[in-house]
Amino acid sequence: VIDPSPSPPTFDFKTYMLEKAISVNNALDAAVSLQDPLKIQESMRYSLLAGGKRVRPMLSIAACELFGGHESTAIPSACAVEMIHTMSLMHDDLPCMDNDDLRRGKPTNHKVYGENVAVLAGDAMLALAFHLVATETEGVSSDQVVRVIVELAKAIGAEGLVAGQIVDVCSEGDPNLGLSDLEFIHRSKTAALLEGSVVMGAILGGANEEEVEKLRKYARCIGLLFQVVDDILDVTKSSEELGKTAGKDLVADKTTYPKLIGIEKSKEFADKLNKEAIEQLRGFDSDKAAPLIAMANYIAHRDN
Ligand code: GRG
């Protein structure tokens, strides 16, 4: 039987997240300086420095540190995954995709800078992410850097983020969307970049192949867990806030885990994924694994 929260009681997850977020925010601030052409740089900085939990950068850093690597080695990769996450949100918010007006509590990028600028700022951020990893990663071999770049490219392209987004967009409102389709969307749209973030950190920390695969499995579990919990919160939050009937109406058009397998089975699935994720970290130094264990528990038990 796996203890559901075996992270050492002395480990302070909140402080750890805060410290890593500060390091990442400083590095992001330095990476996108205010220079000509100002319009594009301003638009990039607007979304990049608009908050966000910095889950992906933290995962890269924690995975690197698990194998004895330094935070500074993982910082360019940590910034890169956050840049790509941010540009994917900017593009997702565009009128041709989700058409959203608000993101992270602020008007979306295209609402402030216009659609043309938001597209180009996202494109620039995608390019900058790879540039940063290739030119700023220090303290590891160039072979490791190449492997990190391959991992990142794989996570976001037509077999990763883009795959999830296109299937999601094309299946909107499809009443026949099944469990395997839903899982494909979540694995590609959400889990792929989380997986990339963790594996990139592990490679930079010096993990061997077997260790990389363990961490990959951990990341896949927390990636899917993230979405299953999101789906559960969708139901519980909307029924809490609006009363049971209105809540149901709100989520009626979206295919979710609770809709396909019910709320109880969804919770059981989430629990299974949480345990499976933590199981992958058995055998590692427990102090060094604590942030990753705490992250899995945080994703499983968050309430918003
Ligand atoms: C990457 C080349 C390239 C294109 C992008 C538009 C698109 C293709 C993909 C959209 C993917 C998308 C919107 C995924 C959702 C990911 C997700 C779980 C977002 C919420 O993440 P949090 O909770 O957000 O970490 P914060 O705001 O805290 O960063």
TrEMBL record:
Its cofactor is Mg(2+). One of its GO terms (biological process) is isoprenoid biosynthetic process. GO terms for cellular component: cytoplasm. Pathway: Isoprenoid biosynthesis. GO terms for molecular function: geranylgeranyl diphosphate synthase activity; metal ion binding. Keywords: Isoprene biosynthesis, Magnesium, Metal-binding, Transferase. Belongs to the FPP/GGPP synthase family. This is Geranylgeranyl pyrophosphate synthase. It comes from Trachyspermum ammi (Ajowan caraway). The gene is GGPS1.
